UniProtKB/TrEMBL annotation:
Organism: Epilithonimonas arachidiradicis
UniProt-recorded name of the protein: 3-oxoacyl-[acyl-carrier-protein] synthase-3
UniProt domain Beta-ketoacyl-[acyl-carrier-protein] synthase III C-terminal: residue ranges: 284-364
Keywords per UniProt: Acyltransferase, Transferase
Signal peptide: none
GO biological process, any: secondary metabolite biosynthetic process
Record Pfam families: ACP_syn_III_C
Length: 379
């Protein structure tokens, strides 16, 4: 088995940062009415700026595949050229199409002159970590000498007003208040676009910071809990999901079937406690001393969860002091599968890391409550 190192990282955030007051200029007004929920949601999530692959007319400026390819292009240099890549592993929630696979489209965007193995991980926030794990295991087993792993999102085009106007119009016809359900509007003010990419190799780079991947663990609680975050379906009274394919096509727009939704009732109940439970399991499994961890990078969807997460970790004997935590949510927003990649890239290139330090990664996914965590060592 080979050691596996993140030898280079790169981030791509499309266009300029967008402040809270300008969000509806890009996303538009549902039913031509300013959102009443926006201010409350933004106050709780504590996001100040985010990035959209949109112009001010709500028109797309990049596809997800282009955002991803731009992040990957930042990995290439005199030590690692595009044609040296042996494996491309991509994770996203928001692919541009159902088929072909996201990694296939990214490979096409890169303009390479050779074939390469590709892997696509689809899902929610953990899809980026799943993509990383595929590359990690491939290099560790000696099947590949290197792998490029990426987490990316382009949520903005899912959140433009035209995607919700039909639902509002349908409510008018039913003589109800034309206000889109909170479970759908909630996420309009939470999500951002961007991508982060890692180069994995079986040797560290001399005279540069590399991060050795010690382990990556995954946990799912779908056997215990119903779905919380979903799209392309609608949640039923019994907690089951009814697929878009089982709805008449004229209902797809009326009910915003393809919109990303979140059941906030069960989000608070489980998201933190299950995260702490899974992390405690990993610390016990690897006999890891919490005192040995120097940096904690925990992906959170909202600043609302920041204090609660620290407390839940402390409740299971993982009381990391605040000076060890690294967050960039308020500046870049919630980029789903790309968030942990972008946080690692910022820390890795900050000049603050010292050899031998341990970096803990924690990624929750509220889809049906799945979690991942990883340990890196600075080399």
């Amino acid at each position: 088995m080979s050691n596996v190192y993140i030898t280079k990282s790169s981030t791509y955030l499309p266009n300029e940062p967008i402040v809270n007051d300008d969000m509806e200029s890009y996303l538009g007004l549902v039913n031509n009415t300013p959102s009443k929920a926006r201010a409350l949601i933004l106050r709780n999530n504590q996001i100040k700026t985010r990035y959209y692959a949109l112009d001010k007319n709500g028109q797309p400026t990049h596809t997800n595949a282009q955002i991803t390819a731009n992040a990957i292009n930042g990995l290439f240099d005199e030590n690692f050229k595009k044609e040296d890549m042996e494996l491309l592993s991509c994770g996203t929630t928001s692919a541009d199409q159902i088929q072909p696979s996201h990694a296939s489209m990214v490979h096409g965007e890169l303009g390479m002159n050779k074939s390469v193995e590709i892997n696509t991980s689809m899902g929610l926030c953990n899809s980026g970590m799943n993509a990383l794990n595929y590359g990690f295991l491939s290099v560790k087993a000696g099947v590949k000498n290197n792998a490029v792993c990426v987490g990316s999102e382009r949520f903005s085009s899912w959140m433009t007003a035209d995607k919700f106007d039909h639902e509002a119009e349908n409510l008018k016809l039913l003589e109800e208040r034309p206000i889109v359900a909170f479970k759908r509007e909630f996420l309009r003010w939470m999500l951002s676009d961007g991508a982060g990419a890692f180069l994995l190799e079986n040797k560290p780079r001399e005279n540069q910071t590399s991060l050795r991947i010690e382990w990556i663990d995954f946990y799912s609680y779908a056997h215990e809990i119903e779905a919380c975050m979903y799209s392309g379906c609608e949640k039923q009274e019994d907690g089951s999901l009814k697929s878009w394919a089982d709805y008449p096509s004229d209902e797809w727009l009326k009910q915003s079937i393809f919109a990303l939704k979140q059941d906030t009732k069960i989000l608070d109940q489980y998201i933190l406690v299950k995260g702490a439970q899974s992390l405690r399991t990993s610390f016990d499994k690897h006999e890891l001393d919490p005192e040995s961890v120097d940096h904690v990078l925990a992906h959170i969807s909202s600043g609302y969860f920041k204090d609660g997460l620290k407390q839940e970790f402390a409740n299971v004997g993982l009381d990391f002091p605040w000076e060890k935590w690294f967050y960039n949510l308020s500046e870049v927003g919630n980029i789903g599968a790309g968030s942990i990649f972008i946080a690692v890239e910022q820390l890795m290139n900050s000049g603050k890391l010292k050899k031998g330090e341990k970096i803990l990664l924690c990624v929750p996914e509220s889809g049906r409550f799945a979690y991942s965590c990883a340990l890196l060592t600075v080399c």
